[in-house]
Amino acid sequence: MQRLTLLIIFFLSGMAALMHQVVWVRQATLIFGVSVYAYSAVLAAFMGGAALGSYWLGKRADQAKSPLFLYALLQLGIALLGALAPFALTALRPLYATLAQWFAVDSAWITVTRAYFAILVLTPPAFLIGATLPFMARAFTRQAGRVGSAIGSLYAADTLGAALGCGLAGLFLLRWLGVQQTAYVAAGVNILAALGALWVARNYQGALMQPQAAKPTPPPKTSKAAAKQKSTPPPTLVTPSITAKFVLVAYALSGFTALGYEVVWARILAIFTLNAIFSFSIMLTTFLTGLTVGGWIGAWWTRRRRVTVMHFANLEIAVGLTALLTLFIFAFVPNRVTLETTFGAGSVTNIILFEFLLGFLTLFLPTTLLGMLFPIVASLYTAEAIGAVGAQIGRIYAFNTAGAILGSLIVGFVAIPVIGLQATAATLSALNLIIGVVASWLPLVHGMQSRLVLQGCMALGIALILLLPPGYYLGFRADPTKEMKYYGEGPETTVAVFDVPDQKFKVSFVNGRIEVPTDPISMRAFRLLGHLPALVKPDAQRALMLSFGNGIATGSLDTHNIPRVDAVDLSAEQFKAAEIYWQENYNVLRSPRLHKFVEDGRNFLLQTPDDYDIITTDATHPVNASSWALFTREFYDSVAVHLTPNGVFMQWLPFHSLRETDYKQIIRTVQHIFPNTTLWYTGGSHTLLLATPYPLTKERLLATLGTGAPGDTVVTDDLGSPTVIASYLVMDEDALRAYAGPGSLVTDNDAFFLPHDEDTEKIMQMLQALQQAQGAK
Known about the structure:
Elements: H1 2-32, H2 36-61, H3 67-100, H4 108-140, H5 147-176, H6 179-208, H7 224-228, H8 240-272, H9 279-304, H10 309-336, H11 339-342, H12 348-382, H13 389-419, H14 421-441, H15 447-466, E1 484-489, E2 494-500, E3 505-510, E4 513-515, H16 520-536, E5 542-546, H17 552-558, E6 564-569, H18 572-577, E7 594-598, H19 601-607, E8 612-617, H20 633-641, E9 643-654, H21 660-673, E10 677-683, E11 686-691, H22 698-705, H23 713-718, H24 722-727, E12 729-731, H25 733-740, H26 760-775
Parallel strand pairs: 5-6, 5-8, 6-7, 8-9
Antiparallel strand pairs: 1-2, 2-3, 3-4, 9-11, 10-11, 10-12
């Protein structure tokens, strides 16, 4: 009974740890930026702290008279530091912003500064989280010969809790409660785990600390041929200490591949999913679920038979082969597994279920095999002895986590940009295959037959690599066509551009989603986004475009000869793709006035000391995982700080796949910071918000625009006459305030936009009716 209680306690510990991680990553990336560089700095700080805690405090677990008491203290410490971490990160924002302005926006020192602050805040609680495993392992593991099984059970319970915590936090708690409140819930779970550990320590500690007699381990199953040769055992040339060292290093390399896979698979799955604010949580939950199942299978396996290095080799080979198989599944998915064919209507529930389905189809098998490795490695490294199990398990966890940190960083920042997603995944698979083959040569007692089988698997892996389908990940189809003029994979995004000359149509696919189509309705929105701020602020000296995209809005803005235009985009690939749009964006990349920056919009505003007469943002949809942060009160506050006293702010605000309540809440938030905000409608689902330093009516707008400057063909040809431009204004500030109504604002703490198509037609009909009524006057 007490052992089941310990598993439940460790389950709660894993749940709280992932809830904290979700909160910390969200809060820290809001402070340091939502770019992959900021996310990686936060993740590295978290995992590095966990590795250190596991290694250093694991050494002390074996000397502890009451490991459960110390485990409870660790949980209380995690609760306190975890709940304080969001406050600490927020408090560091002004200092980070000040230091960031010392460096150029694209300086590597910015990333160093991010990492420093992330380490400063997140390492202490992560250090304590990492130490929980060796202390619980010391309390739970009582029987020699059952170490792998016991550790596997703990690992599975912890990972199951982590999967549940990730899903709860990412899908529900952040949306229902908010960031800080989710941190409090996680702290409450830590406290519950601590109380459970104290109760067990008080009632069962004496029994738990008494080692049980080792039960005989059944001999490994052998073939008849091997049984005949039993009388002449082969020589054993590898000592256990060498085996242990090899397994430790090999498991560190396995950690490298595991987190490398996570980075690659997350990037590819983002292309096939909505990539909404909850999509990454779904992928991670699926990943952790596979590890959980693998942990239980590994624990069951180690109870049944003596584990050998050949089992480790078999698993590594299997991981490599199934990871290659996953690449074939990714190629199979686009044309055959879609939301419509599997679940029908695109409701939020169906979208979530579909993304879980994609995750399980692609990730479940390899992650299950990865999960089986931990109990196998624990059995091999400890040699099934319990004397130093705390230190040994702490060392295994630390080495694996250190490898995982390197895997996430090298794969994300080096491998994917240099060789692409598919080649990176294939390289990771090859590394698993190599680990398996090397391991198969270590225990010579197994003879040539076993090694030949594994080498045959290696040959199969090479054949699969050679037969891989084309490595283009477009989301909507398996293969590119001749119309694809650009394809690029970077740390942040996968971008493809298609040009259909006979239809005079171009379109980009950014992480699988349609962006920058050149249909007439979309082009009107892009042109208005660029022209209108300059038209109402004709004396502008400096302009800022956040979310450059393919440069159509920026090119329109640049035609007004503003002395300096700064363009910011999260993806360097977008600037490269903009070359294909040179006609639509007026070749803006060649403009001497343009200055490009690869950074996310919020972090750019934190870093730059400059003020602007015009700030325009063309961020992607609010539902998108990388854009929702550009629709909060804190973002609009930062925009206001960088606007000159008479500056103008404009933002594209689509309403497709957005609830009307969320649409109104965003409008209400903008008007709270910029009272003189008007709403513009250019057709389709495109609306734009324009904030001016004075109330803007249609009459005042026409007085400002006049009849149009003679010879100014850009404005008259690509956007229309002043009367046409004025017709896009559908709500002045009073009408807009009445439409949005009273209510809450969007904040960093509770921003969570769910995809929702039911209100799109309703909003569109309302805007079209307003436009028609105003045209009839």
